[in-house]
């Protein structure tokens, strides 16, 4: 903090210290300026932006498609896939595609989407409720705040397990070679 001074005096101070005079707030009276190395300042700003860009995750919109007559097991598989997408941090559009006479029964598709939302309750937030768009009815879900995906369990390694022999196999294994064959 140097205080209020003329622009000419401020430029002289900047030149003496081999720095730049940068106007920070031009709209106030008198304008506020700083003495700093502008090239280094720009470099540090770019470095901070790159670091912030590295740490951010882009959220993509994945889509799961079904039909009104999709079987229960297939729905369970697709529900697990939705949870996998959510665990990766993506949003998911769940769509039901209608063809032909199926268009007369959009209530079946709505019920299917509501059933999926019920199964995923607690792990998802419904961003857009089921709505009809042409021949597709869809809803968009995202990860619920505070929900953590289940951890994958690692199977025990096969190399460290001990195999025990059955009693029948134990008889076939020679115990010791104390007896010598007598050969004439």
UniProtKB/TrEMBL annotation:
Protein's cellular compartments: Cytoplasm
Domain annotation Translation initiation factor 3 N-terminal: ranges: 1-52
Per UniProt, what is one Pfam family of this protein? Answer: IF3_C
Gene Ontology terms, MF aspect: ribosome binding; translation initiation factor activity
Q: What is its main location?
A: cytoplasm
Positions of the UniProt region annotated as Disordered: 140-184
Which ranges does the record mark as transmembrane? Answer: none
Keywords for this protein: Initiation factor, Protein biosynthesis
Listed under GO biological process in this entry are: ribosome disassembly
Domain Translation initiation factor 3 C-terminal, by residue range, is 59-142
Gene3D superfamilies named among the record's database cross-references: Translation initiation factor 3 (IF-3), C-terminal domain, Translation initiation factor 3 (IF-3), N-terminal domain
This protein's GO cellular component annotations are: cytosol; membrane
Q: What does this protein do?
A: IF-3 binds to the 30S ribosomal subunit and shifts the equilibrium between 70S ribosomes and their 50S and 30S subunits in favor of the free subunits, thus enhancing the availability of 30S subunits on which protein synthesis initiation begins.
Subunit description: Monomer.
Q: Member of which family?
A: Belongs to the IF-3 family.
Write the protein's name: Translation initiation factor IF-3
Q: Which organism is it from?
A: Ktedonospora formicarum
- Taxonomic lineage of this organism? Bacteria, Bacillati, Chloroflexota, Ktedonobacteria, Ktedonobacterales
């Amino acid at each position: 903090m140097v205080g209020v001074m003329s622009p000419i005096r401020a430029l002289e101070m900047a030149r003496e210290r081999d720095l730049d005079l940068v106007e920070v707030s031009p709209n106030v009276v008198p304008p506020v300026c700083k003495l700093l190395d502008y090239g280094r300042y720009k470099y540090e700003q770019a470095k901070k932006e790159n670091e912030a860009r590295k740490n951010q995750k882009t959220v993509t919109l994945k889509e799961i498609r079904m039909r009104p007559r999709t079987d229960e097991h297939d729905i369970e598989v697709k529900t697990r896939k939705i949870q996998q997408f959510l665990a990766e941090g993506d949003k998911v559009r769940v769509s039901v595609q209608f063809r032909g006479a199926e268009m007369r029964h959009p209530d079946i598709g709505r019920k299917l989407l509501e059933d999926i939302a019920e199964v995923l309750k607690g792990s998802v937030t419904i961003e857009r409720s089921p709505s009809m768009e042409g021949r597709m009815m869809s809803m968009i879900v995202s990860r619920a705040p505070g929900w953590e995906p289940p951890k994958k369990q690692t199977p025990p390694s096969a190399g460290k397990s001990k195999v025990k022999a059955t009693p029948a196999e134990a008889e076939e294994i020679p115990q010791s070679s104390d007896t010598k064959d007598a050969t004439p």
